[in-house]
C-alpha cells in the first residue's frame, strides 16, 4: 500500500514538473516582467509537496532517520555559509562567493534545494508534534 501510494505521488510530481516545463516554454516570461519572480518560486513547490507526503506515510523510526539526515545536511550547509561569511568579514579579502553564487543559476538551484530541506524539517517537526499531542492526550486520559 505504502509503495503504491509513493509511486502514485512521485508520478504526479513528475507530471507537475513536465507541466511546469511546458508552461515555461509556452508563456516565455521575460526577466524584466514583474511576474518572473513568482515563476521562480514554482520549481520547489512540487518537490516540497511530494516530500511532505513521503514523510507523512513513514513511521516514526523512518521519520527520525529522515530528520537526522536532513538536519545533518542543513547544518553542513549552514556551516559552509557561516565560513564564507566569516571570510567576507575579514579585511583585505577580495574573494566573495556570495557575489558569484547569488547571481547565476547555480545559486538559484542551491537556494531551492535549501528551502526544500527547511520545509522537510518543518514538516517532520509538525508530524512529531502531532504524535506528541496524541501521546499526551492518551496519558491524560489514563490519569483521569
Summarize the structure.
Helices cover 83% and strands 0% of the residues. It is mainly alpha-helical. The radius of gyration is 20 Å and the shape is flat.
Order of helices and strands: HHHHHH
> What about the largest sheet?
none
Number of helices: 6
Radius of gyration: 20 Å
Strand percentage: under 5%
Low-confidence runs: none
Average pLDDT over all residues: 77
Instruction: Compute the number of strand runs.
Output: 0
Amount of helix: over 70%
Give the CA-based shape: flat
SS class = mainly alpha
First-last Cα distance: 37 Å
Describe this structure in words.
This protein is mainly α. The chain is 83% helix and 0% strand. It contains six helices and no strands. The two termini are 37 Å apart.
Write the layout of secondary structure elements.
Elements: H1 2-27, H2 36-40, H3 44-57, H4 60-89, H5 97-101, H6 105-143
Helix pairs in contact: 1-3, 3-6, 4-6
Characteristics:
144 residues; 83% helix; flat; mainly alpha
Amino acid at each position: 500500500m505504502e509503495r503504491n501510494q509513493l509511486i502514485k505521488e512521485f508520478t504526479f510530481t513528475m507530471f507537475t514538473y513536465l507541466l511546469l516545463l511546458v508552461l515555461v516554454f509556452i508563456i516565455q516570461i521575460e526577466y524584466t516582467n514583474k511576474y518572473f519572480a513568482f515563476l521562480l518560486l514554482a520549481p520547489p513547490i512540487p518537490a516540497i509537496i511530494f516530500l511532505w507526503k513521503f514523510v507523512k506515510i513513514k513511521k516514526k523510526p523512518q521519520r527520525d532517520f529522515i530528520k537526522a539526515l536532513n538536519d545533518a545536511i542543513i547544518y553542513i550547509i549552514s556551516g559552509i555559509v557561516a565560513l564564507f561569511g566569516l571570510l567576507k568579514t575579514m579585511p583585505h579579502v577580495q574573494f566573495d562567493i556570495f557575489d558569484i553564487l547569488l547571481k547565476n543559476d547555480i545559486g538559484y538551484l542551491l537556494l531551492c534545494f535549501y528551502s526544500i530541506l527547511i520545509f522537510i524539517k518543518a514538516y517532520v517537526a509538525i508530524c512529531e508534534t502531532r504524535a506528541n499531542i496524541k501521546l499526551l492526550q492518551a496519558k491524560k486520559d489514563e490519569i483521569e
